[in-house]
Amino acid sequence: MDFPFSDALKRLPEQFFAGLVHKVSLLEKEGHDIIKLGQGNPDLPTPQHIVDKLKEAADNPAYHKYSPFRGFDFLKQVICDFYDREYGVKLDPTTEVAIMFGSKTGLVEISQCLLNPGDLALLPDPGYPDYMSGIELAQARTSLMPLTAENEFLPNYGAIPASDLEEAKLMFLNYPNNPTAATADQKFFDKTVELAKKHKICVLHDFAYGALGFDGEKPQSFLQSEGSKEVGVEMYTLSKTYNMAGWRIAFAVGNASVIESINLIQDHVYVSLFGGMQEAAAYALTTDQTCVEELVHTYESRRDAFIGHLRAIGWDVPEPKGTFFVWLPVPHGYTSEEFADLLLEKAHVAVAPGNGFGEYGEGYVRAGLLDTEERLLEAAKRIEKLGIFSKA
Ligand SMILES: Cc1ncc(COP(=O)(O)O)c(C=O)c1O
Question: For the Aminotransferase class I/classII large domain, which residue ranges apply (predicted)?
Fold first, then answer.
């Protein structure tokens, strides 16, 4: 028997990138060597000292029971210490921290927490697709904020229709940005706080790439702006900072009412994460951070190698300031999808077509710096062989 899905499930947007994964796997089955730069999955392992801490913690019988519903106090305290150390932001561990099963979970939950059917959310376009999943589940509506090169991939608040600003209840932001690799400065976040206060909009800042800033520039936390806690929360994941994407651990910090709403929904859906995980996460956040510096250095040299080579073959591409992505303008005469298909089929290089992230992603493809420098150079060489670009 086939049981019909609920209307809520039917509203979920199509997983755009499932098609790309399928195409790649077909070519691999035919025996082709595909350089896979299409997804955002960190390629390097979790630093060994964090893995060892998990192994040790797994032996502790105290963690074999249910964890406290809202997570262990020691982890919440460590998260506050981390924000104080990294950003000079003071937080209350009892009211301003929620522990989550990865930030993807939190990014979908937030719409259930704050939006009623018909409510309006402001959403970056292009943007991380899962924001939309939560909005659809909540039966809410969106007003899209285009991110364009002319505005350095920041939303132009002056262009948002006045009626949308009045109606909007929630705004999603993400810097360093997936997919455009743009970063935001304090001035931008100060302006965001001002706008949010004026129009009573809750800001959700997705800080997934918070650790990944290049050229010595540390990415700005939204919570570093004065008054930010009055109007929003920031979500931080260990997935990218410590290559812990498979572990599923993240947290939200900031506005106490929003944190309470996240904790409340999680009281009903989960019992908190395995205690050993929480201990290992606390260790990752507090111990020597050399592994993070090394990771940033690795992505930065991959960026330099890849971008340098693409420019050398005649592809005029901008240099990203953060994340592990590069946002590449497609050459004249191709759509994003046509160009991504060409790279996959003829050069065996997989990239993500920009239109999968929204209408304003058209004209770009996203490549992840998620393979070795040698393989990234090999990708650039394969692209050169297509003969599309001409050297200056
Ligand atoms: C912008 C952005 N937010 C959130 C996530 C999800 O991270 P997590 O592993 O914490 O679910 C990703 C993962 O790729 C991302 O790119």
Answer: 33-383
